[in-house]
Amino acid sequence: MEKLSELPAKAETKAQPRRFRVIGNARAGSVLEAGVGNFARRIEAAFAAAGCDAEVELLPPRAIEERLRAAVDDRAATPVIAGGDGTVNGALPVLLECPRPVGILPLGTVNVLGRDLGLLGTIEEQVSALCRGKPVAMDLGSINGRPFHSISGMGFFSLMAREREQARRRFPFSRTIAFAFAATRSILFTRPIRIELEVGGQQRQVEADAVLVTVNQFDGADWRRNRLDGGQLEVHILDTGGLLSRTKAALSMLTGSWRTSHNLVSLTAEAVTLTRRDKRRGHVTFDGEVERRAGSLDYRLLPAALQVIAARPAEI
To answer: Which three-class secondary structure state does DSSP give residue 47?
Structure first.
């Protein structure tokens, strides 16, 4: 009989670090400021400090889709899209094909989705939160079949979103000044739109300064969602009260009291159709990206469409 001391030692097994493949937008403002190579190394170092491995590729926007598909096909890694809300929006068709949870690394100016996922602070803090995060089911919306993750609309709110992003780049030292600049331009340059609106099977005609559709309910001055899987679209209609109405709306957005505004009507549904009665092409926002579109906009809810890693639960 062999002595215990002569038996071969059992090989120790060591858990492999969690592996990520990060595909990012090299044109994001924070990347351009630091330089692509430096920023990629910073992300890799942040993952290493959090106990994870990461392969980081920062690419021009036109090259993101191909490399993101390769990351999705790599079943040994978690794919991560790094960029602002618009970059994430453009990546949704690829992310929706992923059979496992995906990660978001917010690098934009506003980062609506990043905030809702609990990914805040410096890159190092965001990466640490991502490595500790858990998968949650997240609702999406679609517009004529095109997915979006947070906000879409036309009129004052869409102009406000465009102006606010530009203003925050112009006035990075003061959020208040950036908001005031964006609000002033939006108040002055918004023009009323006539819309045929179908919500929950009921039709109405409205003349409004803005119509905004969100995936689940947003609240407060920072526009945060308490639920990512609330199972509804919300439609906000700002009446045509002119400069005074738009000024009050802007102030209510700044103070977080916009939900109680007398100039705003909010409805919930799983399907919404908006049609401009003038048949003209108008600006429509998709998570911060802007396009000119004509014809009807058919909004649909895509419940629990995406499994995404979050540093907060789906409901708080």
So the answer is: helix
